[in-house]
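Quick question, first post here. What does this chain look like in 3D?
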Amino acid sequence: MKSIIACLILIVLTSLPTGSLAWDKQLTLMTHDSFSISKPVLADFEKALGAKVVILRSGDAGEALNKAILSKNNPLADIFYGVDNTFIGRALEEDIFIPYAPKRLDSVDPALRPGSQNRLIPVDYGDVCLNYDISWFKRHKLAAPRGLEDLLDPAYKGLAVVQNPATSSPGLAFLLATVSRFGEDGYIEYWKRLKANDVLVVNGWKEAYWGHFTAASKGDRPIVVSYASSPAAEVFYAEIKPETAPTGVVVDKGSAFRQVEYAGILKNGRQRALAQNAMDFILSPRFQEDIPLQMFVFPANGKAALPKVFTNHARITDTPARLAPEAIEKNRDRWLREWTEAVL
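> Answer (accepted):
Ran it through. C-alpha coordinates below.
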Protein backbone atom coordinates (compact mmCIF):
# COMPACT_ATOMS: atom_id res chain seq x y z
CA MET A 1 0.00 0.00 0.00
CA LYS A 2 2.78 2.44 0.93
CA SER A 3 4.56 1.74 -2.36
CA ILE A 4 1.34 2.43 -4.29
CA ILE A 5 0.86 5.75 -2.47
CA ALA A 6 4.49 6.67 -3.13
CA CYS A 7 4.05 5.94 -6.82
CA LEU A 8 0.88 8.04 -6.97
CA ILE A 9 2.67 10.96 -5.29
CA LEU A 10 5.55 10.67 -7.76
CA ILE A 11 3.13 10.67 -10.71
CA VAL A 12 1.36 13.78 -9.40
CA LEU A 13 4.61 15.63 -8.79
CA THR A 14 6.07 14.82 -12.20
CA SER A 15 2.83 15.83 -13.93
CA LEU A 16 2.71 19.26 -12.32
CA PRO A 17 3.55 22.23 -14.59
CA THR A 18 7.18 23.24 -14.43
CA GLY A 19 7.73 25.84 -11.76
CA SER A 20 4.85 24.65 -9.57
CA LEU A 21 6.97 22.44 -7.31
CA ALA A 22 7.38 23.61 -3.74
CA TRP A 23 11.11 24.30 -3.70
CA ASP A 24 12.95 24.04 -0.40
CA LYS A 25 15.20 26.95 -1.35
CA GLN A 26 14.51 30.38 -2.82
CA LEU A 27 16.58 32.93 -4.70
CA THR A 28 15.30 36.52 -4.96
CA LEU A 29 16.29 38.58 -7.99
CA MET A 30 15.73 42.32 -7.55
CA THR A 31 15.27 44.29 -10.75
CA HIS A 32 13.46 47.12 -12.53
CA ASP A 33 9.89 47.03 -13.77
CA SER A 34 10.93 46.47 -17.41
CA PHE A 35 12.65 43.15 -16.69
CA SER A 36 11.09 40.23 -18.56
CA ILE A 37 11.85 36.52 -18.84
CA SER A 38 9.89 33.85 -20.69
CA LYS A 39 8.14 31.18 -18.65
CA PRO A 40 10.16 28.28 -20.15
CA VAL A 41 13.47 30.01 -19.40
CA LEU A 42 12.34 30.89 -15.87
CA ALA A 43 11.44 27.23 -15.38
CA ASP A 44 14.89 26.17 -16.61
CA PHE A 45 16.44 28.80 -14.33
CA GLU A 46 14.73 27.21 -11.34
CA LYS A 47 15.74 23.72 -12.45
CA ALA A 48 19.36 24.78 -12.80
CA LEU A 49 19.34 26.22 -9.28
CA GLY A 50 17.11 23.64 -7.68
CA ALA A 51 15.31 26.58 -6.12
CA LYS A 52 12.35 28.89 -6.58
CA VAL A 53 13.28 32.17 -8.32
CA VAL A 54 11.34 35.19 -7.06
CA ILE A 55 11.43 38.27 -9.29
CA LEU A 56 11.24 41.43 -7.17
CA ARG A 57 10.38 44.32 -9.50
CA SER A 58 11.20 47.57 -7.71
CA GLY A 59 10.41 50.55 -9.95
CA ASP A 60 12.57 52.07 -12.68
CA ALA A 61 16.32 51.40 -12.80
CA GLY A 62 17.29 54.33 -10.57
CA GLU A 63 14.52 53.69 -8.05
CA ALA A 64 15.36 49.99 -7.82
CA LEU A 65 19.03 50.75 -7.23
CA ASN A 66 18.16 53.26 -4.51
CA LYS A 67 16.09 50.58 -2.73
CA ALA A 68 19.01 48.16 -2.93
CA ILE A 69 21.35 50.78 -1.47
CA LEU A 70 18.99 51.70 1.37
CA SER A 71 18.57 48.03 2.32
CA LYS A 72 22.23 47.03 1.89
CA ASN A 73 22.67 45.93 5.51
CA ASN A 74 19.64 43.67 5.26
CA PRO A 75 19.21 43.05 1.51
CA LEU A 76 15.79 42.49 -0.02
CA ALA A 77 17.30 40.08 -2.54
CA ASP A 78 20.28 37.92 -3.42
CA ILE A 79 21.01 39.33 -6.88
CA PHE A 80 20.39 42.72 -8.45
CA TYR A 81 19.76 42.86 -12.21
CA GLY A 82 19.57 46.18 -14.01
CA VAL A 83 22.28 48.60 -12.88
CA ASP A 84 23.13 50.45 -16.08
CA ASN A 85 26.18 52.49 -16.96
CA THR A 86 24.44 55.76 -16.06
CA PHE A 87 24.35 54.63 -12.40
CA ILE A 88 27.21 52.16 -12.16
CA GLY A 89 29.44 54.68 -10.37
CA ARG A 90 26.91 55.07 -7.56
CA ALA A 91 26.45 51.31 -7.28
CA LEU A 92 30.19 50.71 -6.91
CA GLU A 93 30.70 53.62 -4.50
CA GLU A 94 28.04 52.24 -2.19
CA ASP A 95 29.88 48.89 -2.11
CA ILE A 96 26.73 46.74 -2.20
CA PHE A 97 28.10 43.96 -4.45
CA ILE A 98 30.65 41.20 -3.96
CA PRO A 99 33.10 40.00 -6.63
CA TYR A 100 32.23 36.91 -8.64
CA ALA A 101 33.43 35.86 -12.09
CA PRO A 102 30.67 33.68 -13.55
CA LYS A 103 31.15 30.97 -16.13
CA ARG A 104 31.27 32.26 -19.75
CA LEU A 105 32.51 35.69 -18.67
CA ASP A 106 35.24 35.30 -21.31
CA SER A 107 32.46 35.36 -23.95
CA VAL A 108 31.55 38.94 -22.99
CA ASP A 109 33.13 41.77 -24.99
CA PRO A 110 35.77 43.38 -22.73
CA ALA A 111 34.51 46.80 -23.90
CA LEU A 112 31.28 46.14 -21.98
CA ARG A 113 33.05 45.23 -18.75
CA PRO A 114 33.61 48.01 -16.21
CA GLY A 115 36.58 48.20 -13.86
CA SER A 116 34.51 46.70 -11.05
CA GLN A 117 36.65 43.68 -10.09
CA ASN A 118 33.72 41.53 -11.26
CA ARG A 119 31.34 43.06 -8.75
CA LEU A 120 29.05 43.90 -11.68
CA ILE A 121 28.80 41.70 -14.78
CA PRO A 122 27.40 42.89 -18.16
CA VAL A 123 24.20 41.07 -19.11
CA ASP A 124 22.75 43.08 -22.02
CA TYR A 125 23.19 46.29 -23.99
CA GLY A 126 21.52 48.50 -26.56
CA ASP A 127 21.79 51.92 -28.17
CA VAL A 128 19.44 54.77 -27.23
CA CYS A 129 18.90 57.01 -30.22
CA LEU A 130 16.42 58.92 -32.36
CA ASN A 131 13.80 56.80 -34.14
CA TYR A 132 11.81 58.19 -37.06
CA ASP A 133 8.66 57.28 -38.96
CA ILE A 134 9.88 56.36 -42.47
CA SER A 135 6.50 56.68 -44.21
CA TRP A 136 5.78 60.08 -42.60
CA PHE A 137 8.96 61.57 -44.03
CA LYS A 138 8.25 60.05 -47.44
CA ARG A 139 4.71 61.46 -47.47
CA HIS A 140 5.93 64.92 -46.50
CA LYS A 141 8.90 64.77 -48.93
CA LEU A 142 11.30 65.66 -46.13
CA ALA A 143 14.68 64.01 -45.61
CA ALA A 144 14.84 61.91 -42.45
CA PRO A 145 17.26 63.14 -39.74
CA ARG A 146 20.80 61.80 -39.93
CA GLY A 147 22.28 63.39 -36.82
CA LEU A 148 21.41 65.27 -33.65
CA GLU A 149 22.08 68.61 -35.34
CA ASP A 150 19.25 68.04 -37.82
CA LEU A 151 16.67 68.55 -35.08
CA LEU A 152 17.70 72.21 -34.88
CA ASP A 153 16.72 72.86 -38.51
CA PRO A 154 13.44 74.85 -38.81
CA ALA A 155 12.23 72.12 -41.19
CA TYR A 156 12.04 69.80 -38.15
CA LYS A 157 10.20 72.26 -35.91
CA GLY A 158 7.64 70.49 -33.72
CA LEU A 159 8.53 67.01 -35.02
CA ALA A 160 10.40 65.45 -32.07
CA VAL A 161 9.28 64.05 -28.73
CA VAL A 162 11.86 63.18 -26.05
CA GLN A 163 11.76 61.94 -22.45
CA ASN A 164 12.59 63.90 -19.32
CA PRO A 165 16.05 62.63 -18.26
CA ALA A 166 15.12 63.05 -14.58
CA THR A 167 12.25 60.55 -14.90
CA SER A 168 13.24 58.28 -17.78
CA SER A 169 16.16 55.93 -18.39
CA PRO A 170 16.26 56.45 -22.19
CA GLY A 171 15.73 60.16 -21.55
CA LEU A 172 18.86 60.24 -19.39
CA ALA A 173 20.81 58.23 -21.96
CA PHE A 174 19.81 60.72 -24.67
CA LEU A 175 20.88 63.65 -22.50
CA LEU A 176 24.26 61.95 -22.05
CA ALA A 177 24.50 61.50 -25.83
CA THR A 178 24.15 65.27 -26.22
CA VAL A 179 26.78 65.91 -23.54
CA SER A 180 29.15 63.55 -25.36
CA ARG A 181 28.39 65.00 -28.79
CA PHE A 182 28.46 68.73 -27.94
CA GLY A 183 30.61 68.80 -24.80
CA GLU A 184 30.20 70.53 -21.46
CA ASP A 185 30.24 73.92 -23.15
CA GLY A 186 27.76 73.10 -25.88
CA TYR A 187 25.08 70.69 -24.71
CA ILE A 188 22.91 73.26 -22.91
CA GLU A 189 22.98 75.57 -25.94
CA TYR A 190 21.90 72.59 -28.05
CA TRP A 191 18.94 71.95 -25.74
CA LYS A 192 17.95 75.62 -25.70
CA ARG A 193 17.85 75.62 -29.48
CA LEU A 194 15.96 72.32 -29.44
CA LYS A 195 13.38 73.88 -27.11
CA ALA A 196 13.08 76.87 -29.43
CA ASN A 197 12.38 74.40 -32.24
CA ASP A 198 9.36 73.12 -30.28
CA VAL A 199 10.66 69.80 -28.97
CA LEU A 200 8.06 68.03 -26.81
CA VAL A 201 9.24 66.66 -23.43
CA VAL A 202 7.23 63.93 -21.68
CA ASN A 203 7.91 61.89 -18.55
CA GLY A 204 8.47 58.40 -19.91
CA TRP A 205 9.13 56.17 -22.90
CA LYS A 206 5.62 54.72 -23.12
CA GLU A 207 4.04 58.18 -23.20
CA ALA A 208 6.47 59.29 -25.90
CA TYR A 209 6.39 56.17 -28.09
CA TRP A 210 2.81 55.01 -27.77
CA GLY A 211 1.27 58.41 -27.11
CA HIS A 212 2.97 60.77 -29.59
CA PHE A 213 5.11 58.86 -32.11
CA THR A 214 3.29 58.70 -35.46
CA ALA A 215 4.60 55.22 -36.35
CA ALA A 216 3.08 53.72 -33.20
CA SER A 217 0.09 55.94 -32.39
CA LYS A 218 -2.23 58.65 -33.67
CA GLY A 219 0.24 61.26 -32.44
CA ASP A 220 1.80 64.03 -34.47
CA ARG A 221 5.53 63.55 -33.75
CA PRO A 222 7.44 61.47 -36.35
CA ILE A 223 10.69 61.54 -34.32
CA VAL A 224 11.08 59.95 -30.88
CA VAL A 225 13.89 58.92 -28.54
CA SER A 226 13.89 55.12 -28.30
CA TYR A 227 16.27 52.23 -29.02
CA ALA A 228 18.10 51.12 -32.15
CA SER A 229 16.40 47.77 -31.65
CA SER A 230 12.89 49.30 -31.73
CA PRO A 231 12.47 48.55 -35.46
CA ALA A 232 12.86 44.85 -34.67
CA ALA A 233 10.10 45.14 -32.05
CA GLU A 234 7.83 46.88 -34.57
CA VAL A 235 8.24 44.00 -37.01
CA PHE A 236 7.98 41.29 -34.34
CA TYR A 237 4.70 42.57 -32.93
CA ALA A 238 3.07 43.43 -36.26
CA GLU A 239 0.04 41.29 -37.11
CA ILE A 240 1.21 41.15 -40.72
CA LYS A 241 5.01 41.02 -40.73
CA PRO A 242 6.45 43.69 -43.04
CA GLU A 243 9.62 43.01 -45.03
CA THR A 244 11.11 46.25 -43.79
CA ALA A 245 10.65 48.00 -40.45
CA PRO A 246 8.35 51.06 -40.39
CA THR A 247 10.88 53.00 -38.31
CA GLY A 248 14.41 54.13 -39.00
CA VAL A 249 17.14 54.96 -36.48
CA VAL A 250 19.82 57.64 -36.18
CA VAL A 251 23.00 56.03 -34.88
CA ASP A 252 25.87 57.67 -36.76
CA LYS A 253 28.24 60.45 -35.70
CA GLY A 254 27.93 59.84 -31.96
CA SER A 255 24.14 60.20 -32.02
CA ALA A 256 23.42 57.05 -29.98
CA PHE A 257 24.34 56.31 -26.38
CA ARG A 258 25.41 52.74 -25.56
CA GLN A 259 23.35 51.61 -22.55
CA VAL A 260 24.78 48.57 -20.76
CA GLU A 261 22.96 46.67 -18.01
CA TYR A 262 24.78 44.77 -15.28
CA ALA A 263 23.93 42.20 -12.64
CA GLY A 264 25.71 41.43 -9.39
CA ILE A 265 25.51 39.47 -6.15
CA LEU A 266 24.33 41.64 -3.26
CA LYS A 267 26.61 41.75 -0.26
CA ASN A 268 25.02 40.25 2.87
CA GLY A 269 22.56 38.26 0.78
CA ARG A 270 21.34 35.05 2.37
CA GLN A 271 21.89 32.67 -0.56
CA ARG A 272 25.52 33.15 -1.62
CA ALA A 273 25.98 29.78 -3.34
CA LEU A 274 22.64 30.02 -5.13
CA ALA A 275 23.47 33.55 -6.22
CA GLN A 276 26.75 32.40 -7.78
CA ASN A 277 24.92 29.62 -9.66
CA ALA A 278 22.33 32.17 -10.76
CA MET A 279 25.02 34.46 -12.19
CA ASP A 280 26.37 31.47 -14.13
CA PHE A 281 22.91 30.87 -15.59
CA ILE A 282 22.38 34.55 -16.46
CA LEU A 283 25.39 34.40 -18.81
CA SER A 284 24.38 31.02 -20.25
CA PRO A 285 23.09 30.81 -23.84
CA ARG A 286 19.69 29.68 -22.53
CA PHE A 287 19.14 32.93 -20.61
CA GLN A 288 21.05 35.21 -22.97
CA GLU A 289 19.19 34.06 -26.08
CA ASP A 290 15.90 34.86 -24.33
CA ILE A 291 16.86 38.51 -23.83
CA PRO A 292 16.32 39.98 -27.33
CA LEU A 293 12.63 39.11 -27.69
CA GLN A 294 11.86 39.74 -24.02
CA MET A 295 13.50 43.16 -23.55
CA PHE A 296 14.62 44.02 -27.10
CA VAL A 297 18.25 44.59 -26.24
CA PHE A 298 21.34 42.63 -27.22
CA PRO A 299 22.78 39.81 -25.07
CA ALA A 300 26.20 40.48 -23.55
CA ASN A 301 27.38 36.93 -24.31
CA GLY A 302 28.80 37.29 -27.80
CA LYS A 303 28.22 33.58 -28.50
CA ALA A 304 24.46 33.83 -27.91
CA ALA A 305 22.48 33.42 -31.12
CA LEU A 306 20.24 36.30 -32.17
CA PRO A 307 16.70 35.80 -33.52
CA LYS A 308 16.26 36.50 -37.23
CA VAL A 309 14.09 39.57 -36.60
CA PHE A 310 17.01 41.06 -34.66
CA THR A 311 19.66 40.32 -37.26
CA ASN A 312 17.40 41.75 -39.97
CA HIS A 313 16.03 44.86 -38.26
CA ALA A 314 17.88 45.80 -35.04
CA ARG A 315 20.87 48.12 -35.26
CA ILE A 316 23.96 48.72 -33.19
CA THR A 317 26.35 51.56 -33.90
CA ASP A 318 30.10 51.39 -34.42
CA THR A 319 30.47 54.94 -33.09
CA PRO A 320 28.41 55.28 -29.89
CA ALA A 321 28.48 58.39 -27.74
CA ARG A 322 30.91 57.72 -24.90
CA LEU A 323 31.25 59.09 -21.38
CA ALA A 324 33.31 57.51 -18.61
CA PRO A 325 31.19 56.10 -15.74
CA GLU A 326 33.25 58.24 -13.33
CA ALA A 327 32.36 61.39 -15.27
CA ILE A 328 28.68 60.43 -15.32
CA GLU A 329 28.62 59.80 -11.57
CA LYS A 330 30.45 63.04 -10.82
CA ASN A 331 28.34 65.27 -13.07
CA ARG A 332 24.96 63.55 -13.56
CA ASP A 333 23.05 65.53 -10.94
CA ARG A 334 24.50 68.82 -12.17
CA TRP A 335 23.68 68.00 -15.80
CA LEU A 336 20.12 67.15 -14.80
CA ARG A 337 19.79 70.38 -12.87
CA GLU A 338 21.18 72.45 -15.73
CA TRP A 339 18.94 70.66 -18.23
CA THR A 340 15.86 71.25 -16.05
CA GLU A 341 16.62 74.96 -15.72
CA ALA A 342 17.19 75.36 -19.46
CA VAL A 343 14.38 73.20 -20.84
CA LEU A 344 11.60 73.04 -18.27
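The longest helix spans residues 325-343.
The chain has two domains: 2-125+259-306, 126-257+315-343.
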